[in-house]
Design a protein that fits this description.
about 475 residues; mainly alpha; Ammonium transporter fold; three-stranded mixed beta sheet; 17 helices
Length: about 475
């Protein structure tokens, strides 16, 4: 390990500074919310009404996706399994701590305090997913110091964008298509554009997979696949909205999965399946249904969205990713633009169509609960009528379906712009010489940052083995001759 990548000082100092800052901020600002404060409990309180029992199952499911799903999925490189899983673990743990604070200031701050409950942790996990998706664009080409700095800078940009879009543009985005998937995608592309490495366009000897690394990566895919309905439905209205979200997500994932198998076989010259397609393209349906996941789009629409998302994602991996690397200086290592960008765009368009078609004939009075910004404003006589049918219905903005659709379009462009600029600026910081970035030669290699075990298969050992096998084959042929 050269001095430029040695972590002996850099990583401990950065972690110490971050911990001191977080400790100080938690001490000053963070306290218990009403559902965690012992002083607010009494003998008349039903413990089962605590928000823990409503929110924790979703928190646990998303936590499995973050730490196991993403971790295993990112371990597909043959010589980069430690780094893929462990850097995911490190980055995710810090990101959630940091997001509790930053998001807390935007969403849970009042009376000079951030009131903490399980719902904060769930929101922080969604913010964490944003960082981990962006991480996929620079996988193998960055070190732990760079990744922590990336998380440190991305969370404030994301939280500010999320707050501005939800407060001022006001959109429907139950599955996080715009504010999670699209933001993460274009932030990651902005970072990798700045960190462009010309020599990597010609391939790298360590940029390869193995039998065992591919199996581990598919395990990550399966964890993400199984728990994705929780991800898409966690923040929807309880009841029929959440029920639809779970159904639509499962149907979309199912259709994208079988489509991925078909496409993988038909576009292989020998009709075989490609593991990269199974690891990534099968998940496309979960993203594609996201923007309309809680709406009355019908099961057949969810199925069709899964097929469309899968198809776009597959051809994106096949054609668009190489084009971006060769012509646009965007080396998207995990193809996040295909799984989160292209599918996010399809999902956003589907959501806009669903909003334009939404009517009281289809939804009944709940139209103004699902599309809350279309509810009548304060003082409108119709609001009082609706509140008799739906107790607790809040005043809206009185938007028409067409107006809400235009705001959805504005949110897409605003999110892409904010995330791209944020990614470019973050990339410039990550490129500073003291960030312990690996050299081109050391990319995709665990040995650079880890004390690897004796049975670690280095690329040099692999070359020697291949050379030995070739010599044995040559010797065998000569003997037969």
């Amino acid at each position: 390990m050269s001095k430029s990548t040695n972590l002996k000082v850099r990583l401990p100092v950065l972690v110490l500074v971050l911990e001191v800052v977080i400790l100080a901020l938690y001490a000053v600002f963070v306290t218990y919310d009403d559902n965690t404060n012992a002083k607010l409990q009494n003998n008349e309180t039903d413990p089962m009404q605590n928000s823990l029992y409503r929110d924790y199952p979703y928190f646990a499911d998303v936590q499995v996706m973050i730490f196991i799903g993403f971790g295993c999925l990112l371990a597909f490189f043959r010589f980069y399994g430690f780094s893929g899983m462990v850097f995911n673990f490190l980055t995710a743990t810090f990101t959630i701590q940091w997001a509790i604070l930053i998001q807390g200031f935007f969403q849970f701050y009042h009376d000079g305090k951030i009131y903490l409950g399980v719902i904060n942790l769930l929101n922080a996990e969604f913010a964490c997913a944003v960082v981990l998706i962006s991480f996929g664009a620079v996988l193998g080409k960055t070190g732990p110091v760079q990744l922590l700095v990336m998380a440190l800078l991305e969370i404030p940009v994301f939280s500010l964008t999320e707050w501005a879009v939800l407060k001022y543009i006001r959109i429907n985005d139950a599955g996080g298509t715009i504010l999670i998937h699209m933001f993460a995608c274009y932030f990651g592309l902005g970072v990798t554009f700045v960190l462009y490495r010309p020599s990597l366009n010609n391939g790298h000897p360590k940029e390869t997979t193995s039998y065992h690394s591919d199996i581990l990566s598919v395990m990550g895919t399966l964890f993400l696949w199984v728990f994705w309905p929780s991800f898409n439905s966690a923040l929807t209205f309880k009841g029929d909205d959440q029920h639809r979200a779970i159904l639509h997500t499962f149907i979309g994932l199912s259709s994208s999965t079988i489509t991925a198998f078909a496409l993988s076989a038909v576009f292989h010259k020998r009709g075989k399946l490609t593991m990269a397609d199974i690891q990534n393209v099968t998940l496309a349906g979960g993203v594609t249904v996201g923007a309309s996941v809680d709406m009355m789009i019908s099961p057949v629409a969810a199925y069709a969205l899964g097929v469309m998302g899968c198809t776009a994602c597959f051809f994106g991996y096949k054609y668009l990713t190489p084009f971006l690397a060769q012509r646009m200086r965007i080396q998207d290592q995990c193809g996040i633009h295909n799984l989160h960008g292209l599918t996010g765009l399809i999902s956003s368009i589907a959501g806009i169509c669903a909003i334009l078609l939404a009517s009281e004939e289809t939804y009944g009075p709940s139209l103004y609960q699902i599309f809350s910004h279309r509810a009548p404003p304060e003082g409108d006589p119709k609001l009082l009528e609706l509140q008799e049918l739906i107790p607790g219905l809040k005043p809206g903005l009185g938007r028409t379906a067409q107006e809400q659709a235009l705001y959805q379009v504005a949110a897409v462009f605003a999110t892409i712009a904010a995330s791209t600029v944020g990614g470019l600026l973050t990339g410039l910081v990550m490129k500073l010489p003291f960030m312990a970035a690996p050299s081109d030669e050391d990319c995709f290699d665990d040995e650079l940052f880890f004390n690897t075990p004796p049975d670690f298969e280095s690329v040099d050992a692999l070359k020697n083995l291949i050379s030995l096998e070739e010599k044995e084959k040559t010797s065998s042929v000569n003997t037969k001759v």
